[in-house]
From TrEMBL:
Lineage: Eukaryota, Viridiplantae, Streptophyta, Embryophyta, Tracheophyta
SUPFAM superfamilies: ADP-ribosylation
InterPro entries: Znf_C2H2_type
Alphabetized UniProt keyword annotations: Metal-binding, Signal, Zinc, Zinc-finger
Protein name: C2H2-type domain-containing protein
Database matches in PANTHER family: C2H2-LIKE ZINC FINGER PROTEIN
GO molecular function list: zinc ion binding
This protein's record includes keyword Zinc-finger: yes
Amino acid sequence: MPTIVGSFFSNLFLLFFHLGCFTFSSRRHQSTSSFLHKKRSPPNPNPKSTLFSYLKRLFSPSAAAHIPPPPASIPSPSSSTRSLRLNPPLIAPLNTRRQHHTHAVAPADIHPCTVCGEIFQTPAFLHHHQSSKHGVSDLADGENIIRIIFTTGWPEKAKPPAIHRILKIHNTPRVLARFEDHRDRVKSDAAADGTKSSRCIADGNELLRFYCTTFICSLDSAICSQQFCGACAIMRCGFSQKLGGIPTLPTGWKAHAAVPEDVEEEFSFMHVKRAMLVCRVIAGRVSTLSDVDEDHGFDSLVGPGDDDLLVFSPKAVLPCFVIVYTLN
């Protein structure tokens, strides 16, 4: 019995001895690790509290406030609006300059010449340019027809005309519009008066007439502005208002005879030459009485020779061709 009790206590003593050695070695290893940890990082008195605080900050709604903002991104070159807003250009864009130029000169103020392309700011400047620079040109098509019309009715005993040039007059849109407006007015007046002339109501009683004048320039593509150049003055400004009306003749010979024969010799020092104008005339309502005018409801008047047609309005006469000629 004593032997069994002594053996029990000896075994118990050995058990406690081994537990004590294990505990001592664990505490020594723990103290060494703690010493190294103290050198590397500051002590953390409450590790559970630190872990809880981290988890709380991570899942709380205000966690985004503690997350550092991302670095500012560079705007993409494809986003032109954002690029212009963040990085304003040093040079104004091309469209900005075009808008400024468009604001300075409105499209309604641009009047280009259809012949040379030169641009003018007012219709008056364009009209002056076209009538002076591109007023006439050599007739390419239809020259023989105009030649026949001019020589028809020329007396056989008279000197035949030698035609040097036939020019076509390029009337400006302003002149053509004025001529057509006058035709419309004549047609409406004839219809309102109840006239029996169907021709007058249809086209204003349009006729082909001749008007002889003189010129002193070379009469090329440009129309001169000389004071005594009659042909250029008519092509540039139209016919002037005359007291008895503008005389137009049915044939080239009668229009030629209306100008004195010695006009070239008398004004030879000015190099005066003849020019025949072939004109379209809105005769309208024609009167045979000598004491009537435009106020009496007529548009033209038959002259003393029964061939002269005196047109009251300059708008009714539109020159179309110029024939430069001399007598053989």
